[in-house]
Structures are given as structure tokens and as C-alpha cells.
Amino acid sequence: MEVKINSGADLAKEVNSLASSWTVRTAAIKKWYNMIRLVDDLKQDKMESVISSDPRTSFNMASWLLTPKTPVFAVDTEGMNEAEISSVGAIEAYCNREYLKEQRRTASSLYGRFDKRLVNYMLATGWYSIISHPTPDGWIWGVWNPTSVYPEYDQDGGLVKVARRYRIPARHAAAKISAEGWQAPNRKWTSGQLNVYTEWWMDWDAELQENVAWFCAGIGTELVRPPTSTPFRAIPVHVAPVAGLPDDGSITQDDSWRAEIGNSLVVPILDIQKNYNRMLSYMQQLIRDTANPRWVEKVRGSSVLDPDKLFERGAVFTIEPGEEIFHLATPPLPAEMRTHEFDLRNQIQRGSFSDLTFGNVTQQVSAMLVTQVTASAQQILNPFQLGVMAAFSRIAAFNIAHMRAWGMELSGASFPKLPDLLTIDFKYDVAIPGDFVNRANISRILNPEFRLSAATLMELLIPEVRNAVIEKGNLQAEDALNNPIARAVLSIWQLQLAAREARNNNDEQLASMLERAAALMEGQTFGAQKPAATTPGVPGAPDIQALLGGSL
């Protein structure tokens, strides 16, 4: 791909040209995002307007469900021998570790965890864009706003060019150039906002005799990184649409496909939600008008009724004989109004989450209905879940392939001998509320002998428990100590220790009483026993430590 960039102005022109081809997508994303923001576009002066919270609550629910809880990277071992299969664990552990490192690093940032930010962008825009590549100190991750990223694809859908345009304060320009290792220009910026332009593209490298990724960057009209070939065999920016329609322009014969190939979560309910908001606003206005009747004055002089005092408590209006004040009866609300509202609500639930998903239950719900609601939620979330898994799978495979090609180490050790091409899958489950319990109940109905281990239940229902085996051991220890016999044994032991302490203090009377109490409690606990070994220093006292197997 031929790209001629000799100055910052050339780069800005190149990026702006690519950005203009995605104008229809940008306009559509703004429309979707305003619905999620609950922008009141029905507002009128001195009139009520109602904007339903459904788009925002659905977005929050989807974000919570889609953000990976217990993700894992897994190498596809199909066709490998036993030695190779046993060695992929180091690669999987390294990928998981790099993922968790970035989670911790971004958890307290302005935008929060990087994986949740990726999910939120995907739900809001229908696109994901993330840059990642390996370094000797670990992987670099960067989640980008898709509206600032402009890709170009070949006829097979492969990424061949991607540009990015965003703004930074002028006072941050020097720090940005230093952090990225770019070339500082002669001029210095001190005020205002500056456009940053970056572009990646695939092109031939004469020295390497193969296609590699090229990169350049500019700030304002200054070129801070001239076009440079990189050691990447593919563009390290992973950008793709999700949940959209399949057209590439062949059907619509225009550029509208760019706004439809990736779709936000709210696209299926876009028009019906606006209609529903209009209905709610109209109903509230109608209720207000019905509750506030019109008044008629039959008076000879000036008006008697004062609108500002009409509804005051104890308001008094004086009229002359023969004059009259009365209100006009308002018609009742149409009976079909609520039915129409329910119809609109049902159509919204077909394109989004059912009210049952949020726990809005007013009557008993059958297991069949729960299953249908779960299937509906999974159908809505599936394209976005596939997008998350595809993004992180591609990143892992890309980074591991380049680490192996560059001879980088894997946690201080060289890579094991494995096939040249490795497929690494990113796997995680989306748990719909109530789905697990419903499936467990159905399993018990079909097979009364069905049950799950405590370890599996802890992993699925209480993921905060890090190690089920340790937790089970703690429970067994607590049960043993709470046993009445164990408590009695500990009491006997404490009485004997107290008797020994009293005898050391020359209090023979107290020591004798404590020994008798210990003996009495021992007899009540164990009944008639053969003489037991004595505790050193306490005449006649049984060796409780030996009795408990040395666990004290």
C-alpha cells in the first residue's frame, strides 16, 4: 500500500480523508449514545416530558454481565503431542498474568479497568479498538475510543490501514512526545488544544523483503514521527465491528453500511423507545390536564378567578348575585391508552432485556418462562461476548507470536518447542441472573440423584472464595472445634493448666478444686475411663494433648 507522507500537513490530510469516509458511522454513534445518556429530546416549555430509563439500565446490565469475571487464556492443543500439550501451560499462565497486571494497573484510572472500558465502548458504539504489543517488560495495552479510530480493510475484510485522531491540551504535548519516543519539533505549544494524528499501514520493507506494519505520527502540523517501518508483521491495532448487519455496500449502494456493520446495544429499540417516551410524556401531560379542569366565569365585570390563587387552600372568590363560577368536566382517559403502553413495553423487551431479568416480578414465574428469558438475554449479549473473546484471543496470539519471533523470554525462560502457529482462545462465561438455579432445578427434576460438589458451587456462586479446598478445610476445623466434646476437652485442658498455675503459686486449695472440677468434667464427657497418662507437672491429670493427637 503506497502512502506518501512528507510533512505533518500530509499526515493530517491523510487521516482526515480516512475519517471523512466514516462520517455516517460517527453520526449514528452519537444518536445511539444520546439515547443511552437519556437525553431529553422531548422537552417543551411549560410541558412535562418523560424519558424512560430503559436504555441506561439495559446498558448497565449488559456491561455488568459482559465484563469478564473469571477469564482464562487457553492454547488450542489440537494435533499436538503429549510433550507439547504439557508445555503450553506456561504460555497460558503468562497471558493470564499479563491480563491481570493490566486489570490492576487500570483499576484506579479515570476510565476504570481496561476490559470493562472495552465492553462499554462496544455496547455504546458497536465497535472495539485496542492496541497491544509485547515488550521486554510485559505487554502494552491501550483501549481507544472507536469514534476516534478510522480503519481501512481489503476485499477480504483484513485490516490494511488504521488512523487515529484525538485532541490533547497543548501543555501535554511535550510529555506525550517524550513518553512515546517521538521527535520533538522546534516549536513549543503553550495553550489551546492540539490534534494528534497517528497512522498504521501495511507496506513492503525492502530490507526485510516482506510486508510489515509502518507507523507515523503528527501533532498539529508538525510531523513528530516520520513514516517508519516496524518489526510487526501485522498492525498491532485490533479494531472490528460487532452486532451489526452484513452489508458492505453491495446491497444499499451507498455508505450507510458503515453505520450498520457495527451496532450499539440500543439499536433494536431505537425507534420504539422514542415512541414509548412520547407516549409516557403524552400520558403525563394528559393526566395533568385531566386533574386540572377548565373554569367558566359568568360575571358582569372583570374576571374573578385568579389562576395563581385558584388552587390555594381556603381560597375565596366573591361574585355578585346572578353571577356564576363553575368548571368544565374533563373526559376520562381512554381505556386503550394503558393497553397501547403495554404493547410498546412488550416490543421494547423483545429488543432488550426482559423486566424479569432485572427482578421485576409481580407474580409466580414458571421455570419455562425463566428459561425463555435467559435465552433471550443470551441472544442479545452473544454478539458482544463473541467480540470480547475475539479481541483478546487475537491480542494473545499476536503478542505470543511476536515474542517467539523476536526471541523474547517467557517469564525468564525460553519458549518451549511448539508448532509455529498457535491459536490462543480467550474464554469466559456470561452468567444470567437466575439461570444457574433454574438449570440446577431442572436437572434435579430429570435426575433426582443429580448434585454438584461444594467446590463447584463455590466457584460458580461465590467466586470471591479463591480456593475451595482451603475453605472446606477451614469449615471442617470450625466444625471440629464447635463440637460439644471438643469444647469440653478444651475446658478440661484449661482447668488442668489453671491447676498447675495455682500449684506453682503455692495455692494448693485452688489447685485441688480445679483438678476435681477437671476430673468431674472428664467423667461427664468420657464416662468411666482407664487411668490416662498424666500431664507433666499436674498429678493425676490426663494428657489432653496426647488425647487430641497432638493438635494443640
What does the model show?
- This protein is an alpha+beta fold and 552 residues long.
- The chain has helices at 8-20, 23-36, 54-66, 82-87, 89-106, 114-125, 173-180, 270-291, 336-351, 367-405, 435-446, 454-461, 468-482, 484-504, 508-526, 544-547, and strands at residues 72-75, 127-135, 138-143, 149-153, 159-169, 193-205, 210-219, 222-229, 237-241, 294-298, 324-328, 424-427.
- Helices cover 43% and strands 15% of the residues.
- The protein has a five-stranded antiparallel β-sheet with strand order 4-5-6-7-8, with helices on one face. A three-stranded antiparallel β-sheet has the order 3-2-9. The protein has a two-stranded antiparallel sheet with strand order 1-12.
- A hairpin with a 2-residue loop joins strand 7 and strand 8.
- The chain is flat.
Largest beta sheet, briefly? 5 strands, antiparallel
Strand content: 15-25%
Report Rg: 36 Å
Kindly report the spatial arrangement of strands forming the biggest sheet.
Answer: 4-5-6-7-8
- Which structural class should the secondary elements be placed in? alpha+beta
**Number of contiguous helices:** 16
Separation of termini? Answer: 76 Å
Poorly predicted regions are 361-365, 544-552
- The total beta strand count reads 12
- Give average pLDDT, whole number: 82
Please trace the helix and strand order, writing H or E for each element. Answer: HHHEHHHEEEEHEEEEHEEHHEHHHHHH
Query: What spatial form do the alpha-carbon principal axes imply?
Result: flat
User: Helicity range of the residues?
Assistant: 40-55%
